């Protein structure tokens, strides 16, 4: 963004176009310029649109699993600083080697670790505000922290158990924590008057029920994230802050592999739950999240992107 390359024909047509103009023309604008200006050198621009150069990112649940792979992707895309927020006092060994890997890339990016619990609204607001003050901006937020609990039949939940899930457990982390994280970043994006992209990690379980799993609070928590995404997108759209969610299918991480310890045969039924016949890797979410974080998705908000190997189609 910066100088104006919206075509005059669009301007004259009084269309309501987002004030969203690239430093250099792209697509047909570039082709049109190349046709009339011999000094204009055509070059591929599509990957530039995915670049996060100089942007500041925060991501929760990023000491491991999906969050850590997303942090690496944002760093590789050039995000100046990727703040990885998670519950342990110290990050995992995987996080440390990831930090070193990005450092060695020498692309102007770095990974930072911040301890915080997404269930604590004031803590997450304060820590994200500190980051924004230090960096002078806030551009990308991935509300990714989540926990999984399966195993209570729907008719057996007592009020106490369900309130526990809502106040201290699965719904507290997955739903309340996602809200508090998105609020924390959205407040800073609005304060700095910059465009921003907030991405919520929802789940296939917010759309369908995992066959054979009694996961009422988890499924409810992820469904709530889908509608929270749409609500926030509508309220933040006027500030050019976009809010979208991703809904992965089965991805092999600690969260899922813990279930396989007792029931290793589950992996086959998970793989057979989609037409591609396999489960996914956190690496397969890199492209999607980078797209959503970047200007390449500038007209996308209030959307959920299913990334499930077709699980949702069956
Ligand atoms: N793995 C899958 O198949 C799958 C599928 C769909 C959605 N998801 C979602 O993706 C997200 C990441 O899951 P994952 O598979 O990487 O799991 P994971 O358990 O490997 O990682 C989750 C991370 O969140 C952190 N976390 C948990 N509670 C927290 C809290 N209160 N505050 C801050 N951090 C906290 C954990 O410490 C951990 O590092 C979750 O929201 C999960 O529901 C996972």
UniProtKB/TrEMBL annotation:
Alphabetized GO MF terms: oxidoreductase activity, acting on NAD(P)H, oxygen as acceptor; oxidoreductase activity, acting on the CH-OH group of donors, NAD or NADP as acceptor
* Protein family per UniProt: Belongs to the short-chain dehydrogenases/reductases (SDR) family.
Keywords in alphabetical order, please. NADP, Oxidoreductase
Stored InterPro entries = NAD(P)-bd_dom_sf, Sc_DH/Rdtase_CS, SDR_fam
Q: Does the keyword NADP apply?
A: yes
Highest taxon listed in the record's lineage: Eukaryota
What is a single Pfam family found in this protein's UniProt entry?
adh_short_C2
Q: Does the keyword Ligase apply?
A: no
Gene3D superfamilies, per the entry: NAD(P)-binding Rossmann-like Domain (3.40.50.720)
The species this protein belongs to is Coniophora puteana (strain RWD-64-598)
Q: What is this protein called?
A: NAD(P)-binding protein
């Amino acid at each position: 963004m910066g100088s104006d390359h919206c075509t005059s024909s669009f301007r004259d047509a009084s269309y309501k176009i987002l004030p969203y103009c690239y430093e250099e023309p792209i697509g047909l604008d570039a082709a049109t310029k190349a046709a009339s200006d011999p000094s204009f050198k055509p070059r591929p621009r599509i990957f530039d649109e995915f670049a996060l150069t100089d942007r500041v990112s925060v991501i929760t649940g990023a000491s491991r699993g999906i969050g850590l792979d997303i942090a690496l992707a944002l760093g590789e895309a050039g995000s100046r600083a990727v703040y990885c927020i998670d519950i342990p006092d110290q990050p995992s060994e995987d996080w440390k080697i990831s930090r070193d890997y990005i450092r060695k890339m020498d692309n102007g990016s770095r990974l930072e670790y911040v301890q915080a619990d997404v269930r604590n609204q004031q803590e997450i607001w304060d820590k994200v505000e500190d980051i924004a003050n230090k960096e002078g901006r806030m551009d990308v937020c991935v509300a990714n922290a989540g926990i999984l609990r399966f195993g209570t039949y729907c008719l057996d939940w007592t009020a106490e158990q369900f309130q526990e899930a809502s106040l201290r457990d699965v719904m507290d982390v997955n739903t309340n924590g996602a809200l508090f994280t998105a609020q924390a970043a959205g407040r800073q994006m609005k304060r700095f008057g910059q465009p921003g992209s907030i991405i919520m990690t929802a789940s296939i379980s917010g759309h369908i029920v995992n066959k054979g799993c009694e996961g009422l609070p988890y499924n409810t928590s992820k469904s709530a994230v889908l509608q929270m995404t749409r609500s926030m997108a509508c309220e933040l759209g006027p500030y050019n802050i976009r809010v979208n969610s991703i809904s992965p299918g089965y991805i092999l991480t600690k969260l899922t592999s813990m279930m396989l310890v007792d029931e290793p045969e589950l992996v086959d039924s998970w793989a057979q739950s989609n037409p591609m016949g396999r489960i996914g890797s956190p690496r397969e979410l890199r492209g999607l999240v980078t797209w959503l974080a970047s200007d390449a998705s500038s007209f996308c908000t209030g959307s959920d992107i299913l990334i499930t190997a077709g699980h949702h189609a069956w």
